[in-house]
Amino acid sequence: MLAHLPQAVRASLTPEQAEALEALADMRKASRHPVDLRLTLPIPCRPMFLTVVAGRERRSSARR
Asked: Torsions phi, psi of 8, nearest 5?
């Protein structure tokens, strides 16, 4: 994630900020789903999108 930031921005980050950004990037990688289908439906006057994601259930029973 840091590689995509401009050099001037990267240079201005504290070590703690850089670590937090890397942790966020790792968390996003871990949350990817085996099935991630995103479609735009060309409905006249109002395009809509449809997203289907599937994978192993990781939420606790309390969250479900």
From this structure: -65, -35
